[in-house]
TrEMBL record:
This is 1-deoxy-D-xylulose 5-phosphate reductoisomerase. Its cofactor is Mg(2+); Mn(2+). NADPH binds at residues 10-13, 36-38, 121, 123, 202. Mn(2+) binds at residues 147, 149, 218. The gene is dxr. Belongs to the DXR family. Gene3D superfamilies: 1.10.1740.10, NAD(P)-binding Rossmann-like Domain. Residues 4-129 form the 1-deoxy-D-xylulose 5-phosphate reductoisomerase N-terminal domain. One of its GO terms (biological process) is isopentenyl diphosphate biosynthetic process, methylerythritol 4-phosphate pathway involved in terpenoid biosynthetic process.
Amino acid sequence: MKRVTILGATGSVGQNTLDLIRRAPERYKVVALTGGRNIAQLAADALEFGAELAVTAHDELLEDLRAALKGSDVEVAAGAGALVEAAERPAHWVMSAIVGVAGLPPSFAALGQGTTLALANKESLVTAGQLLKNTARQARATILPVDSEHSALFQALVGEDAAAVDRVIITASGGAFRDWPLEDLAKATLAEASAHPNWDMGQRITIDSASMFNKAMEVIEAREFFGFTPEQIEVLVHPESIVHAMVGFCDGGFMAHVGPPDMRHPIGYALNWPQRDALPLERLDLAALGQLTFREPDPARYPALRLAREVMARRGLSGAVFNAAKERCLDHFISGAIGFTHMAEVIEEVLTRVSADNSLIDAEITLDHVLHVDHLSRQCADEVVRERNG
Ligand code: NAD
Ligand code: MG
């Protein structure tokens, strides 16, 4: 039986992962499940899957979790330290599906035990890619991408020589506002930004899709995970979300990964890897789709992509600055403190201010340094927002 742990089990990726495990219970032993504030969901899943351990990220919810699991054999724990302990519990396969940089310490801890880490938490790679890769190498752990575009690239590269790759293209749906008049973007509301045309995902990544900050993160993620140069990584807007990524080889051939927009495909690929097993996905009917379209992303609509290029050029800990500023701006957009288009402006300002300190950005990429830069960048984002709002 495969021992599996799911970090961020109550979220969108976590629930899709449990959906696959539910279909083949004889193959899996659930070790640990972690969640945030949704204690009812966490407790129900821990009972259904017979988890050894259930952890909420929030100390103050420990007693609620304990009460919800009273009379069962499930151990309970709470807090950031408990998340790391859950990730360290021996397991063959760990899903990293916490949202935000909060997912980094547990991702890191899971790798330390030499497991196979299915990595949905792109923030880990953007903030500390080299650290994760080095840790995996030392601990003989494996990292498998779960982000759909990166899983697509990974699959298109099986059996290929990395030196034969000319370029890679990741696609973007264009998000909720791809066809809005540019001048309307400033007035976009939270509800409008939270509705994705093709994918059903958590609220934060859905808003990041509308602003293209999700794709900006993914360009950096592709660089960190596969080691492509920034010039090799391209983005195309593809409204149908059927082609997830393409690899262009030196002989002019192109390998495209094509499939329905359903996260259970990349999750299932990582769960069954290195095998390919049947998955409960809708089968594509290309004739019914009729056509697939592609276009260049408009730089005026999506400043996030330019900022990602600046981060990749700057390297060092600038990925941690970028991610923290983005996370904080998202909080401020959700709370109504800033408008939709202000997010990119504030993030750019934070990058300028924090990156001015070379010794900070060029420091060695360690967990402590990443979390320190993350903290400073969040403070800086709050400061910039305060200044703007007078
Ligand atoms: P979500 O918001 O639906 O779920 C997030 C999970 O993390 C929940 O279990 C929540 O309780 C937990 N969590 C939130 N804050 C936490 C904290 N501070 N500490 C510990 N746990 C916390 O998010 P999601 O859409 O499932 O995305 C999860 C990750 O996967 C993100 O990094 C996202 O970018 C990535 N991802 C998601 C999708 C998708 O389809 N949803 C696709 C590709 C990549
Ligand atoms: Mg993606």
